[in-house]
Amino acid sequence: MKLSPLITFNGILFIALGIAFALYGPLMMAFFDVPELSIDSTTYWHLAAFARMFGAALFGYGFLLFALREAVNELSAAHQRRVVMALLLSNLLAAVVSITQQSSIWYNPAGWVTTGVFAALTLAYGAMLVAGRSKGGNTA
Fold first, then answer.
1. Where are the beta strands (DSSP E) in the chain?
2. Among 11, 28, 37, 102, which residue is least crowded by beta carbons within 10 Å?
3. Which of the 8 DSSP states describes residue 32?
4. 83 near 75, Cβ under 8 Å?
5. How do residues 87-112 score in pLDDT, each as one tens digit?
6. Is 68 helix (H, G, I), strand (E, B) or coil?
7. Model pTM score
8. Confidence of residue 136 (pLDDT cuts 50, 70, 90)
């Protein structure tokens, strides 16, 4: 697999999730079965604001990846490895956090999908890193 299509997919996915969380934070929280709490409206909107900030961060991260989708091919093999390693680690961290949340809080299909997506991206970047080393360093 080439690096550019994987980064493109990763970018589009994060843009879509970013839009969903930024515009529909409370709805996305319900999607993950965050229970309706009997709290005052100020506290509720603080929680919704956090979901929206998460969406804005995902949106920005997705656009950064999407903007770099072609430029990554111009990088040296060493710099491509660094990009792949950074994406591997960020998706691994997201997979670990999501499996932790799934097993302790969420217990729902949306949590398994989230965990699966981050795990698949982690495996894809890991396979790319291994394949790049076996080809003499070129990951793209």
1. none
2. 37
3. T
4. yes
5. 999 999 999 999 999 999 889 999 99
6. helix
7. 0.88
8. low
